[in-house]
Design brief:
By secondary structure, the protein is an alpha+beta fold. It has three domains: 12-102, Rossmann fold (3-Layer(aba) Sandwich), CATH 3.40.50; 110-126 and 217-323 and 333-340, D-amino Acid Aminotransferase, Chain A, domain 1 (2-Layer Sandwich); 130-213, no CATH class. The chain has helices at residues 21-26, 35-43, 58-65, 85-96, 105-111, 116-119, 135-146, 192-199, 202-205, 265-283, 328-341, and strands spanning 12-18, 47-53, 70-74, 78-79, 82-83, 100-102, 130-132, 151-155, 164-169, 175-179, 188-190, 209-213, 222-228, 231-238, 255-257, 294-301, 310-317. The strands form four sheets. A six-stranded antiparallel β-sheet has the order 7-12-8-9-10-11. It has a five-stranded antiparallel β-sheet with strand order 15-14-13-16-17. It has a four-stranded parallel β-sheet with strand order 2-1-3-6, sandwiched between helices. Helix 2 (35-43) packs across helix 11 (328-341).
Amino acid sequence: MAGGENTGTAPGIGIVWRGDRTARDTATGESSRFKAIFAALADAGFAPAPAVYDESFADALRAQLRGAAAVLVFVDPLSDGARRYALDTLLRDVAAAGVLVSAHPDVIAKMGVKAVLHATRDLGWGADTHVYRTPEEFTAAFWGRLAAGPRVIKQNRGNGGQGVWKVTALTTGAVEVLPARTDLEAPRVVGLDAFFAERAADFAAADGLVDQPFQPRLLEGMVRCYLSGDRVAGFGHQMVTALGPPGAGPAPPRRYSGPDDARFQRLRAAMEQDWTPGMMRRLDIAASDLPVIWDADFLLGPKDAMGEDSYVLCEINCSSVFPIPAEAPAAMARTLRARLAQPRGV
């Protein structure tokens, strides 16, 4: 079957990921890392097909996807130095032709960037978060905020720990900078002016910076809450070593579980009943426009008066959410079935 074209009456679903021409010519659902998603969609009566993307054959992909009923996209915002701006333009064109695109680039621009941490900071999952749109804003305000304790700064657009640093003020007036990408590198000591000069490039390349207070319970682990639409589809739990003490070693693999995992039912209730609806209102996102698969990463915050954990949102991912819990592909198929059966925007 060619790409997202329909076979018989089965709605065609294009599954998009980045690759070269050889990958596009040889890709199959069964041989891909997304084989569980392909299987769940096929079991639900869809006709899923690989739709491998690269800028060099964008026109072929556009033609393929315009024949689909829906498109599911798994392309990082930053991969080996390549941004996905050209792909986003292509996807907007495909969506304008009536194809359901998830996640739509306009939705990613609202909830899949670090600025969402500032826009939703008062929903109950937030912290003392700030966004900087210009180098001048950052230079004027950041040092004063750093005086209260270490901060974590994040490029507005990025993934996989790229563009994330823990910054600590030193009594000398310099800063200690630890990148999140490695557990082998010792923190660097950088003069304040040099540090601000380094970060100036982030405002053009990554659309600004966001900063949050460093969470002292970082090494107790991170909980990744997976959702399909507005329903929790599972969890991932992983110990965190990025931004931890030097020499902490690599983080162990993330362990996945279904939506009924007893450890995370308070988090599930908050996400489904309060935080996701609150985010939708704040960002003006319709339920039908929420990604078919997305996740929210939480670190443990201070315990409340009853000794219960609080959760601090540190990122929302919706550009390329994979791997996922075993229960998530079936949830995605159910969401997609409901979306295609209803008028858009409901």
